[in-house]
Amino acid sequence: MKKIGVLTSGGDAPGMNAAIRAVVRKAIYHDLEVYGIKYGYQGLIDGNIEKMELGSVGDIIQRGGTKLYSARCEEFKTEAGQEKGIEQLKKHGIDGLVVIGGDGSFRGAKKLTEKGYPCIGVPGTIDNDIPGTDFTIGFDTALNTIIEAIDKIRDTATSHERTYVVEVMGRDAGDLALWAGLADGAETIMVPERNEDFDDVVQRLKRGHDRGKKHSIIIVAEGVGSGFDFGQRIKEATDLETRVTVLGHTQRGGSPTAADRVLASRLGAKAVDILLAGKAGRMVGIQNNELVDHDILEVLDQGHMLDMDMYKLSQELSI
Ligand code: F6P
Predict the structure, then answer these.
(1) Is 46 annotated as a binding residue?
(2) What keywords would UniProt list here (predicted)?
(3) How crowded is residue 265: how many other Cβ atoms within 10 Å of its Cβ?
(4) How far is the centre of ligand 1, averaged over its atoms, from the C-alpha of 248 (Å)?
C-alpha cells in the first residue's frame, strides 16, 4: 500500500479534525502518500481530491467541524455512484480509504471493500449509536454542550418556577439524552428505546411541585418526537408553566473536548495501522479502553443498545 485516502461523511462531529490529523500524520510517518477527499462520498464521485501534507492538518486538532467538509450523498448508495467513486480512486492510484462517519458512511465503506477497495471505518457521530465501540467521536463534546445549556436553563427555570422540556439530538438513539439527563439530574429522560408512561411523568412532576421543587427539567431525545408537542401535553396535563428549548445544531459544533481529541487521535491512527496490516471492511472502536476492530457489517447488524443499567440508575436518582 502506497497511497491512502481519507474522507468525512454524514453529519459532522467535533473531533473529526483530530481524526483526520491522526490519519494523515500516521500515514506520512509510515511513508504513505495521503489524499483528502472533500465533501464525503459526493467529493469522491466528483473527484474532489487533493494530496495532504503534514502541514495540511496543522492547527486543526482544536477545531470543530471537518476540514474535509461533509455531505450526505444519495448517489453513492447506488451501484452507478459507487462505480464513479472507484474510477476516481483508480485515477488517483489510491489503494485504501479511511472513512470517518456514522452508520450510512460505514455501509458505503463496506460496498467499496466488496468491490476491491479496502476501507476502514472510524466512528464519528455525536449520536453514539455505533455498535462495537463504547464511544463515538463527538459524543463527549455534544454531551458537554448540552450540559452547559441545561445548567443555564436551570437558573432561569428556578427563578420563574417553571418546567422545561429540552429536546436533544441523537437520531434514533437515546444516548445523548440519557447521559445528559444523568449528568444534569433531570427529573425525566425520554428515550426512544423505552416507552415511558406519560401518566407517570405527569405524576412525578406533580409530586415534585407539591414537595416544593422550584423547577423540573425533562430531556426528550429527538427520536421520541417533538419537544414542542411534548411540552404542550405536559402543560395541558399539569397546568405547570412550561417552556421548551430545542438545542438543535449547537450540539454538533464547538471545540472538541480533550476526551474527543484523544479518542479521535487513537482511532484515526489505529485505522492506518490496520490498513497497513492488510485488513479491510473493518471499523475501529474503543471497548473497555482498548482499541478494537470489527467487521463493519457484522457490527452494524447487531444494532445499537442503550445502557439499561444507566437508564435504571437515572430513574432511581430522580425520584
Ligand atoms: O447524526 C447526527 C445528527 O446530528 C443527528 O443527531 C440528527 O438527527 C441529524 O444528524 C441531523 O441531520 P442534519 O444536520 O442533516 O439535519
Answers:
(1) no
(2) Allosteric enzyme, ATP-binding, Cytoplasm, Glycolysis, Kinase, Magnesium, Metal-binding, Nucleotide-binding, Transferase
(3) 20
(4) 9
Give, using CA atoms, the residue closest to atom 2 of ligand 1: 11
Q: Does 107 carry a binding-site annotation? A: no
Q: How far apart are CA 136 and CA 260, in angstroms?
A: 8
Q: Which atom of ligand 1 is nearest the CA belonging to 127?
A: 6
Band of residue 156 on the pLDDT scale cut at 50, 70, 90: very high
What is the residue extent of each domain of the chain?
Answer: 3-138+256-300, 140-253
In the chain, the amino acid numbered 172 is: D
pLDDT digits (tens, 9 = 90+) for 209-240: 999 988 999 999 999 999 999 999 999 999 99
Q: SS3 helix, strand, coil % of the chain, rounded to 5? A: 50, 20, 35
Q: Please state the pTM of the whole predicted model.
A: 0.97
Pocket probe for ligand 1: among 191, 247, 252, the residue whose CB has the most ligand atoms within 8 Å is: 252
Q: What cell numbers appear for 197 in the block? A: 408512561
DSSP state of 239: -
The CATH superfamily of 140-253 is Phosphofructokinase domain (3.40.50.460)
**Grid cell locating 3:** 497511497
DSSP state of 136: -
Decide if 200 is catalytic.
Answer: no
